[in-house]
Amino acid sequence: MENRKYIELEEMILKELSALEDSLDSIKNTSKVVELDQQLIGRLSRMDSIQDKEMTKANIVRRIQKKSQLIEALKRLKEKDFGFCIDCGEEIDIRRIRINPAVRKCFSCMQK
Ligand SMILES: [Zn+2]
After folding, report:
1. Is 45 within a domain?
2. 77: domain range?
3. Which of 64, 74, 75, 71 is nearest to 21 (CA)?
């Protein structure tokens, strides 16, 4: 892969990582606010509150997973073996990588 692409992808991944950090922070802050509210509203909304908490947890987990995938991708990017399919070794379409930098397989291997 050309250097220009590496630089572009590195910037993209870093930007995505910091956006993830921001959203993680804001989710954590919002859930604190929700907890305070729930104490005031009382029992009736406890079920909702539990559901909200589960959703928040799932949201946080999903973002943390995405974050570690991106960090992994960044590491691979630096090792220059980035952008090649782990199954067939073909170069992965740059358009696919732009959509998801954590992608590890080419289009045809993904279909298998
Ligand atoms: Zn492949």
Report:
1. yes
2. 3-83
3. 64
Give the residue with greater pLDDT, 54 vs 40.
54
Sign of CA dihedral 35, 37, 39, 43: negative
The rounded Å distance from CA 46 to ligand 1 centre is 49
Instruction: State the distance from the centre of ligand 1 to the C-alpha of 82, rounded, in angstroms.
Output: 13
Considering only residues 96 and 28, tell me which one the structure prediction assigns the higher pLDDT.
Answer: 96
User: How many folded domains does the chain comprise?
Assistant: 1
Handedness of CA 97, 82, 79, 20 (dihedral sign): positive
In a domain, 108, yes or no: no
Query: What spacing in Å lies between the alpha carbon of 111 and ligand 1's midpoint?
Result: 9
- Residue 78 Cα to ligand 1 midpoint, Å, equals 21
> How many angstroms does the Cα of residue 69 sit away from the middle of ligand 1?
19
Q: Is the pLDDT of residue 32 over 90?
A: no
